[in-house]
Amino acid sequence: MHREKQGGFRNWVREDHPVTGTYTEPEAARFTATMNRCWVKSFEDITDNVDTQRFQVVDVRPLKRFLGKPPEPREGVQPGHIPGSKCMPFSDFLDNDGMMLSAEALKKFFKKSQVDLNKPICGSCGSGVTACHMVLAAHLCGAPGASVYDGSWYEWFTKAPPEHVISEVKSRL
Fold this sequence. Notes:
- By secondary structure, the protein is α/β, with parallel strands linked by helices.
- The chain is 28% helix and 9% strand.
- The chain is globular, with a radius of gyration of 18 Å.
- The mean pLDDT is 90.
């Protein structure tokens, strides 16, 4: 099955599109952003969800970081995950060329990870950036209501009570 490749600087260069090292002054423009609260979860939303399970929390960090095995890249932050969250490493959303998998392959990944695309989903990572891979993947699979916990693991670790910091190495901390 042929699928069109899209996006990414590496792909742009691979397809021999023009690039330059010359600086170009951008034109001034006016943009007014509006916040869609449905797309962003707060610490309080996640705390409430630990008990209510109104939405699924998907952590896209590598499995070992999710489990709490290697040290976190940020000094002073211990490894682990949010109670009830599931791990879907962001790198697994991509093919060998670094491109997003097909919708069919993504749906299989969600199913294998026991994440139901018919229920609300919230992505988490280290700081709220790579969680966007999961949100895009959910959207491509027909689940456009996925959100991001923008504080992610960093905020959770610094604010959550110790019993809500789940880690295989917790007993050694």
